[in-house]
């Protein structure tokens, strides 16, 4: 019995390009999913769930034999074009960050199922940096210190790098960073 069951399970293969995908806030994001079924299918069901961190998965949309059944709350945001199992999110917001679970059920000679999880991280583009100087005149004659403060209004995973004449500055007797 075990060998027969294992043979049926291997008949449905579900693949995703990566288990973590980065998208850009405000842009569309395509979660590409392929499935292969070596057999005759009488019905194919595709289900997408969304799981915010530390919460239960919610139904987003699904299809049975190419008829899409969206959750009305999300119908303008998520798109599924069966028989393709890929999901399109448009536009992407910070609140869309989390795990997306796709499940494909195939009914033929018995029912087989496969599922995959994709973690979506939403990146916010970094805004143009602003530099403030103290003293505000930016003029220091021979002695004294000048402080340059660089800030950005928005952006995820921001890193700062100071350069002088196109070369990277390193901490030392003349420069301190905080």
UniProtKB/TrEMBL annotation:
It holds the Pfam family V-set. It is found in: Cytoplasm; Endomembrane system. GO terms for cellular component: centrosome; Golgi apparatus; midbody; spindle. PROSITE patterns: IG_LIKE (PS50835). The keyword Lyase does not apply. It is a single-pass type I membrane protein. Keywords: Cytoplasm, Disulfide bond, Glycoprotein, Immunoglobulin domain, Membrane, Signal, Transmembrane, Transmembrane helix. GO terms for biological process: centrosome cycle. Residues 129-178 form the Ig-like domain. This is HECA2 protein.
């Amino acid at each position: 019995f075990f060998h027969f069951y294992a043979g049926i399970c291997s008949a449905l293969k579900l693949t995703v390009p990566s288990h973590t995908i980065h998208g850009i806030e405000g842009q569309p994001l395509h979660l590409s999913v392929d499935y292969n079924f070596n057999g005759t299918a009488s019905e194919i069901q595709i289900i997408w769930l969304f799981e915010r961190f530390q919460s239960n998965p919610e139904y987003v949309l699904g299809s049975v034999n190419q008829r899409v059944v969206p959750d009305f709350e999300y119908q303008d945001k998520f798109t599924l074009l069966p028989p393709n199992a890929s999901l399109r999110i448009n536009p992407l917001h910070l609140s869309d960050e989390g795990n997306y679970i796709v499940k494909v059920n195939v009914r033929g000679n018995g029912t087989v199922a496969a599922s995959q999880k994709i973690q979506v991280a939403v990146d916010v583009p970094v805004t143009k940096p602003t530099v403030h100087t103290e003293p505000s005149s930016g003029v220091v004659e021979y002695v004294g210190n000048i402080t340059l403060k660089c800030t950005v209004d928005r952006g995820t995973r921001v890193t700062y790098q100071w350069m002088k004449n196109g070369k990277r500055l390193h901490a030392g007797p003349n420069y301190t960073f905080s």
